Recover the amino acids of this structure.
C-alpha cells in the first residue's frame, strides 16, 4: 500500500503516483488529459511537435482537464529555445526533461515557476540531477521503448542504485505496465512510476491503429535495442528493424546507419502506421498486453491496491 503521504503526489498535485510517459507521436492532448482526469499525471510528448503544435496541445489540454498535466521535453530537440519559450508563455507548471544535461535548462524552467523532473539511465546522472536543482528523478531501465540508455541497466538494478545516489523523489520507468510491476518498483525504493508502452496502446493514444495492433501481437523477444552507434532505441520487429540489425551485424558505420535511419521514420511507423518503412518504437513489456483499452481501464489496473 502507498503511504498516505507520497512525495510524488504532493510534488505534482495528483491523486496517484503514476505518470504517463511523454512519448513521441503517441502523447497528444487527448492522452495526457485523460490520464490527468483519471488521477495520474499526463504528459505531452514535445519531441514530435513543432513549437506551434505544442502550444495548441497545451491549450487543448487545459480545456480538457482542470487537473495537473505536464510536458516531456527531450533536450536534444533542434528548436529547444523556441520550445522553452512556448512553455514559459503558456505557463506550463510541470516539465519532464530527458536526453541531455539538466543543468542547461533547469534554472530557466524553475525561474518560470515550473517543477522539473529529469529522466536518467544511471545513478551517476541521478546525482548530477540533484546538483542541477531538479525536483524529481525518473530512473528508466533499458526495457523501455524508444530512445534508451547506453548502459543497458535493467530497471530492477537501476532503481535501487539511483535510490542510494539521490534523496530526490524517485519514479521508476522501463518495463512497468501492471500493478505488480508498480509494487515491485515501490519495493525497490521508487515513490511512483512512469508508464509508457501501456498508455501508447490505449484508445486515447495518437498512435496509428496499425501500430497498436502490430504491437499487441508481439511476443517475448520481439523488441531489440538497436542503433547503439547513434542514439540507442528499442524497436519492435519489422522490416526497418531487420534492416538496422543486418547493417549493425556487418559493422555499419554511424554515417551508414544515419543514412538508413533518414528522417521521419518514427512518424511513419507510429503515427502513420507504415509497418514496413516506419520505425516502430515500443517497450519490452508490450508482450503482456493483448487489447487496446481506454485510459480509465488502464488506470484502474495500475492503481489496484492503492
Amino acid at each position: 500500500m502507498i503511504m498516505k503521504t507520497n512525495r510524488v503526489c504532493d510534488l505534482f498535485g495528483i491523486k496517484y503516483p503514476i505518470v504517463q510517459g511523454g512519448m513521441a507521436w503517441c502523447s497528444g492532448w487527448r492522452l495526457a488529459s485523460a490520464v490527468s482526469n483519471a488521477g495520474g499525471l499526463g504528459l505531452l510528448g514535445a519531441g514530435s511537435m513543432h513549437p506551434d503544435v505544442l502550444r495548441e496541445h497545451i491549450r487543448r489540454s487545459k480545456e480538457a482537464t482542470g487537473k495537473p498535466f505536464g510536458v516531456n521535453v527531450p533536450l536534444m530537440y533542434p528548436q529547444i529555445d523556441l520550445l522553452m519559450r512556448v512553455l514559459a508563455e503558456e505557463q506550463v507548471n510541470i516539465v519532464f526533461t530527458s536526453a541531455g544535461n539538466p543543468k542547461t535548462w533547469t534554472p530557466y524552467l524553475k525561474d518560470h515557476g515550473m517543477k522539473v523532473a529529469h529522466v536518467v539511465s544511471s545513478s551517476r546522472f541521478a546525482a548530477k540531477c540533484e546538483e542541477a536543482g531538479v525536483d524529481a528523478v525518473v530512473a528508466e531501465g533499458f526495457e523501455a521503448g524508444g530512445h534508451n540508455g547506453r548502459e543497458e541497466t535493467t530497471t530492477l538494478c537501476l532503481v535501487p542504485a539511483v535510490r542510494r545516489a539521490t534523496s530526490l523523489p524517485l519514479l521508476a520507468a522501463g518495463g512497468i505496465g501492471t500493478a505488480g510491476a508498480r509494487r515491485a518498483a515501490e519495493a525497490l525504493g521508487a515513490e511512483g512510476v512512469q508508464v509508457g508502452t501501456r498508455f501508447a496502446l490505449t484508445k486515447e493514444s495518437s498512435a496509428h491503429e496499425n501500430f497498436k495492433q502490430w504491437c499487441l501481437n508481439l511476443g517475448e523477444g520481439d523488441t531489440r535495442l538497436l542503433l547503439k552507434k547513434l542514439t540507442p532505441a528499442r524497436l519492435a520487429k519489422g522490416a526497418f528493424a531487420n534492416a538496422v540489425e543486418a547493417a549493425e551485424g556487418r559493422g555499419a558505420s554511424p554515417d551508414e546507419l544515419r543514412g538508413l535511419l533518414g528522417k521521419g521514420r518514427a512518424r511513419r511507423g507510429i503515427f502513420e502506421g507504415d509497418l514496413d518503412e516506419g520505425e516502430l518504437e515500443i517497450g519490452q513489456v508490450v508482450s503482456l498486453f493483448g487489447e487496446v483499452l481506454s485510459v480509465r481501464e488502464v488506470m484502474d489496473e495500475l492503481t489496484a491496491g492503492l
Residues 260 and 299 are 38 Å apart (CA to CA). The longest strand covers residues 69-74.
